[in-house]
Amino acid sequence: MDKKGGGLKWSATGIYAVAALATAISEMVILGDMVVFRMYGFHLNGFVLNILVTLGGIDSLGESASAEISVVLGAAGIVAFNLVLIFVARRWVLRKRGKASYLKLPVFRYLVALFLVATACERIAYGVSQFQAYAPVVTTAGAFPFYLPLTLKTLGGQFGFEPRRNQAVKMQVSGGELNYPENELIVRRPEKQYNIVWLTAESWRWDMLDPDIMPATWNFAQASSNFVNHHSGGIGTRMGIFSMFYGLSGPYWFPFLERRKSPVLVDVLQELGYGLSMYTSAKFSYPEFDKTVFTKLKKSELHEHSERYGWQSDRKNVGDLLEFIKRRDPGKPFMTFMFFESPMPDTIFQRHAPYANRISRTSTTFRDRWNKRCP
């Protein structure tokens, strides 16, 4: 571009390059949305954005370096393809210039009119379905990315119509004051204060507690109280840890995060003078345990190790945890917490064959789709 007449004048090449880049970014967003939807059943949203922008978020996915390189190369290929395509199309248009005026063809006008009519019908159809609580249409709309629904609640009310109410029970967390704990705590120091060692594992399946897969842990469970009739507070790490520490349903995570509210359990342990030392092979910042479960703890009580593989971080953290127990003040009780990353896909342990040393969510998704098309 160059300056002319006090303003900026873009060259044709610059305009086409920007257009190609914008198109490539749009295609990558749509492609990423497709991958997320196929894997998890929801579209790009605040949760996905939180993973991308929060410290430790991307690392928590456990993707290998080869998968990250594949994503970068794929993005570069999309940009290059659009650059080549737009410049080839430009040369073709320049060669055909003057021979036809495509935008003035009646067919084009009819297509635009048909598109507008179809769009209006779709808007009205969804609005009526939502007003009448017609589940097939309302549910299907959620499969389309970036869909902006049209509701007719206000317009229908003006004409005296009442929307049909769905009788399904829904749980909603209000945005009002957080009443937690519901009653004032009365803390009495017990005669014997037990030490607490709290171990959790990321993505660990309940049926993996098996004498063949986990013989040592299995033997320990047989000699201990093993509670098997319990359920997680949600399908995500946040919800599971939250329900364990707070004893509440997973969706309450969000107001507790906003208010930086510590669980009563940790508050009481601090009041009783427990020595606290927490360890994770991920990041305390993702999920945001440093702003919820451990928000009142000092930085010196939160320990992280982020090695190349989750099992390497786990080994270092376990060593530090055992060292803490060995050197602790024997005159006061302690609680320690450990978050294992080994069950994530980056592990290289091979117990059964065949075994994939690397698992990429993106490549697996595309491969599954290709296998369905070409059985």
Which key terms come to mind for this protein?
about 375 residues; alpha/beta; four-stranded parallel sheet; two-stranded antiparallel sheet; about 5% strand
Classification by helices and strands: alpha/beta
Question: What sort of overall outline do the alpha carbons produce when their principal axes are compared?
Answer: extended
Which strand order do you get reading across the main beta sheet? Answer: 3-6-4-5
Kindly state the number of beta strands: 6
Q: What is the percentage of strand-forming residues? A: 5-15%
- Fraction of residues in helices? 40-55%
| Helix and strand run | EEHHHHHHEHHHHEEHEH
Low-pLDDT segments, ≥5 res = 165-175
Describe the sheet with the most strands. Answer: 4 strands, parallel
List the helices and strands and how they pair.
Elements: E1 2-4, E2 7-9, H1 12-40, H2 46-53, H3 65-96, H4 106-131, H5 135-141, H6 153-158, E3 196-201, H7 215-222, H8 237-246, H9 253-259, H10 264-271, E4 275-280, E5 302-304, H11 310-327, E6 334-340, H12 361-373
Parallel strand pairs: 3-6, 4-5, 4-6
Antiparallel strand pairs: 1-2
